[in-house]
Amino acid sequence: xxxxxxxxxxxxxxxxxxxxxxxxxxxxxxxxxxxxxxxxxxxxxxxxxxxxxxxxxxxxxxxxxxxxxxxxxxxxxxxxxxxxxxxxxxxxxxxxxxxxxx
Length: 102
Hints:
The protein is α+β, with helices and mostly antiparallel strands. It is built from two helices and five strands; from the N terminus they run E-E-E-E-H-E-H. Keywords: Disulfide bond, Glycosidase, Hydrolase. This is Hyaluronidase.
C-alpha cells in the first residue's frame, strides 16, 4: 500500500524509522528457526528485560537523535507472533523450547 521497501534491513529516515528484531535490543529468536542456533537466549524468559531495555534505549536514541522527531517508528518483529497458538510452522520451535525451559 505505501511501498516502503528498505534495502539491507535498514530504514532510518526523518519521517520513518524501522527497527528489525535482529537490531532491536536483545530480542530473543532462533536463527533460521533452528533450536541449535538461539540468538539472545532464543526465548524471552532467557534474557534480562532490564538489559534488553537498556540496549533498546541506546538504539532508539541513536536512530532518532532528534527529540522533536514527529515521524513514525516501527518495531518489525517477524520471528514470533504475539499469540502463542499462532506460532506454527517454523515458529513452532519456541513451543518445544518453552516447555523444555520449565
